[in-house]
Design goal:
By secondary structure, the protein is mainly alpha-helical. The chain is 76% helix and 0% strand. The protein is built from 7 helices and no strands. The chain starts with a helix and ends with a helix.
Length: 130
């Protein structure tokens, strides 16, 4: 369990640092940590913004692929915006085709609009074939 007060302070420190020192080498790490904490505390719109900043401003960051994928994941699973999620997932597939993120993005797109029951049925059928 994350203490919300401590989480808020950490997010503020990380985001303030990024604001005041945008060119520092640790800044994208701090944005990523702020995104993780925001996600863990269910502040999904805020997390999305942190990950968007990473992909826009720090294209060489070691977690840029993950940051792009997580934007789609947040839009898909928590912000209920399948249309925007699909656009992000398609960017992941196009930019990073040979990664697990691309595979996960393809799977996510194929599951749009399916009920939990449909997904469970498909999962069971897939496992029975193995």
């Amino acid at each position: 369990q994350i203490n919300d007060t401590i989480a808020e302070k950490a997010i503020k420190v990380y985001s303030d640092y990024a604001l005041y020192f945008p060119n520092d080498t640790v800044t994208p790490d701090y944005l990523f940590k702020a995104g993780e904490i925001s996600t863990a505390t269910q502040q999904y719109p805020q997390a999305l913004i942190f990950y968007q900043n990473i992909t826009k401003k720090y294209p060489d960051f070691k977690y840029v692929k993950e940051s792009l994928y997580l934007q789609g994941f947040l839009l898909d699973n928590f912000l209920n915006d399948d249309a925007a999620a699909k656009i992000i997932y398609e960017q992941v597939i196009a930019k990073y085709p040979d990664t697990n993120y691309a595979s996960d993005a393809k799977a996510a797109i194929s599951n749009f609009g399916k009920t939990d029951e449909q997904l469970i049925k498909e999962f069971k059928e897939k496992n029975e074939k193995k």
